[in-house]
Amino acid sequence: MPHFYAKNMNKYDFKKIIEPVINRNNCLLWGIEILRGKKKNTLRVFIDSKNNNVDINDCEMISRDLNYEPQIDTNLGEDYVLEVSTPGIDRKFFEITQLKDYVGHELDIKTKSIHEGRRKFFGKLIECDDSNISILKSDNSEEIIFKFSDIDLCRLKPDYNNLLKEYSYGE
């Protein structure tokens, strides 16, 4: 029987263990997810850098270094999956401070509870402060304000057509 226990540890406690390892490798901690599985649990760690120049080698080094952190094994058990990756172009936002660099970009938002009759929203980020974000609906009809603490999932919605133009420009 798989057992998931994080002996009184929350994500903040794991962050205190994981973040120094990532910083030693000249990267930044973007976020942490702890997923319960039927057979194994998963610790998912997302890394980034100030210049968004993280590659597979960074992920491998950090993964290897985290495997030698005994506090992780002690608190998750020895039978878990460790995943280290970049947040990707459709990155999930874990903290409101991460959104400040993405004003003007499109977001997919899912709220924890019903907000204005629904839970899913799409729009352009127009403002963000210490606790709230404002998006302009995709049809430019209205501005919607959310408390970040009321958001279950906030993800960047990249403009793939624009990205393709940028990468194929030099060809």
Considering the chains and any ligands shown, give keywords for the structure:
24% helix, globular, 8 strands
Question: Which term fits the overall shape?
Answer: globular
Provide the spatial order of strands within the biggest beta sheet: 7-6-5-4-8
CA-based gyration radius? 18 Å
Largest sheet: 5 strands, antiparallel
Number of strands: 8
Q: How many helical stretches?
A: 4
Unreliable residue stretches: 1-8
The fraction of residues assigned to DSSP E strands is: 35-45%
Mean pLDDT: 88
Structural class: alpha+beta
Q: Please bin the fraction of helical residues.
A: 10-25%
The SSE string, one letter per element, is HEEHHEEEEEEH
The rounded distance between the terminal residues' Cα atoms is: 54 Å
What do you see in this structure?
- It is a single chain.
- The protein has four helices and eight strands.
- The chain is of the alpha+beta class.
- The strands form two sheets. A five-stranded antiparallel β-sheet has the order 7-6-5-4-8, with no helix packed on it. A three-stranded mixed β-sheet has the order 1-2-3.
- 24% of the residues lie in helices and 35% in strands.
SSE blueprint and pairings:
Elements: H1 11-24, E1 28-35, E2 41-48, H2 56-66, H3 70-76, E3 80-85, E4 106-115, E5 118-128, E6 132-137, E7 143-147, E8 151-156, H4 160-168
Sum this structure up briefly.
The chain is of the alpha+beta class and 171 residues long.
